[in-house]
Specification:
With about 190 residues, this protein is of the alpha+beta class. About 15% of the residues lie in helices and about 40% in strands. Strand 1 (about 15-20) and strand 2 (about 25-30) form a beta hairpin.
Length: about 190
Amino acid sequence: MAPKAFELVRLRPEQVHFERQGDTLSLTLLEQADGVKVGGDSRGEVPGVRHFPRVVLRLCFPVSADSVYLSVRDASTEEQEEIGIIEDWMSLAPADREAVAAELGLHYFVPRITRVLRVKEEFGFLYWTVETDKGPKEFIMRNSVVHYAREVGPEHWLLIDVNQARYEIPKVSALDAHSQKLVKRFLYL
C-alpha cells in the first residue's frame, strides 16, 4: 500500500543504503517503512527492495537542527516526491553517513564569517567584504534586513545575498570589535 498524501514515512537507518557515484547519490530501500511496503525495485526484480538511482536530501531544519529530520526525495521526477524522512541521519551506518554528509555539504555550503572588513551601503544594497572559514569573500545583499538576514538564535545570524548564497555569523560577540560594530550597525534594527 502506497503512503497517502501528507503521510509521514519514517525511514529507519537499517533499511536505507546510500551510494555516491560521481555527483549522483542513489538509495536502496529495504523491507518496510513504518508498515508501508516499498514493493519491488523499479524493474520489479527483488520483492521488498526498491532502488532509487538519483535522490536529493533536504534538512527539515538546516540551521537549528542539522542532524535530525532529513527528507529523502526522488530526483528522477520534476516534483521530487518525498520517499521518506530519516529522523537522525547521524545514526546511519558509517558509509551511509559519509555519503549523506558529502551530499549535504554540497547543498548546504554556508561559509562562516570570521571577520567583517567593510560594509558599504549604496542604492538599497549592502556591499560586504568579509573573511570566512573558506577564505575572503565579497558579496552583495539587498538592504532589507527583515527579508535577507535572519537572527536564527541569540547572536546567530544567517545572511542571504542577491544570488541566494548564504553566510553565517555563529556568534556576533565572538567577532573582533570592528566586526561587531559593523554587524550591529547594519543588522540590528
